[in-house]
Amino acid sequence: MNIENATPLLRVEKLNKSYAKGIGNRHRTQILRDVSFELRRGQTLGLVGESGSGKSTTAACVMGLTDADSGLIEFDGVNLTTLSKPEMRRMRRRIQMVFQDPNGSLDPRFTVADLVEEPLIVHGVKDPAERSRRVSEVLDRVGISVKQAERYPFAFSGGQRQRIAIARALVLNPDLVVLDEPVSALDVSIQAQVLNLLSELQDELGLTYLFIVHDLAVARLMSHHIAVMNAGEIVEAGPSADVFENTTHPYTRALLDAVPGAHRRSAQQRTAQQGTTAALAAAGMADALEGK
Ligand SMILES: Nc1ncnc2c1ncn2[C@@H]1O[C@H](COP(=O)(O)OP(=O)(O)OP(=O)(O)O)[C@@H](O)[C@H]1O
Ligand SMILES: [Mg+2]
What we know:
Layout: E1 10-20, E2 28-39, E3 44-49, H1 55-62, E4 70-75, E5 78-79, H2 85-92, E6 95-98, H3 102-105, H4 112-122, H5 128-142, H6 158-170, E7 176-180, H7 188-205, E8 208-212, H8 216-222, E9 225-230, E10 233-239, H9 240-246, H10 250-257, H11 267-282, H12 286-289
Parallel strand pairs: 3-8, 3-9, 6-7, 7-8
Antiparallel strand pairs: 1-2, 1-4, 4-5, 9-10
Helix pairs in contact: 4-5, 4-6, 5-6, 7-11
Adenosine-5'-triphosphate binds near residues 19, 31, 53, 56 and 57.
């Protein structure tokens, strides 16, 4: 089947979301404005845009963590916005999320094996042997040994903790993984390893990623398509290479110009970017950054 022509796994159409300006205040702040995009099975859509542009709010709506005011969120042909709570819960098995900070999603009181097993229990996998088999398999995939899994999260480095969070997200064999800045909190030398892992997992398991990221080098490296958000709107979208190489859109241009290499960058940005680029290069991904 030609993937380009396949029906999208996720289709978001004219999504709107607002918040009340305060308790008892009838005025509302519009956060998302007619957000529309499509994501094909096995592909990655990079959602980029400056802080506060609405990327995480979009993710929260897709995950059913917050209700949109209006719009369509169609996952594998089903409109999620019309599902009842139990129906959404069943669907959530197929849509998982990885957050920026693994510490927030890994309860320090449980061992890693327990943390990775928990989603299986929550979603009703009753056979302990089956659960144990799936936990070992997924930990192996992310590079954590079963022996290590008897330890508690504090015994792991940041990169390892993010691997564990990824294992927790994958243990239910989801179709779609929403990744909200999954490497931003990691040391630059570790970022490339985790990005490599995510790419490998996508290839092996046919995963579809909605990848929220502010680092444009990472966005370009990881994404088949890019959607650029500004103040709650998608202002530009298209195949990654087109957006990065041929954009004429002023906001996208400004975002790209703010990337190290342009005259406006700060010393801090420059160091961070060089770090990422060096780490990616070390992992043999430099060609991708060059657009080869
Ligand atoms: N629960 C909420 N109540 C009120 N306003 C909110 C709420 N959640 C988010 N916002 C506002 O919505 C806007 C978009 O926030 P969002 O977290 O989606 O941005 P983002 O693009 O993910 O930014 P960042 O890159 O900093 O993570 C922000 O102005 C934020 O203050
Ligand atoms: Mg965010």
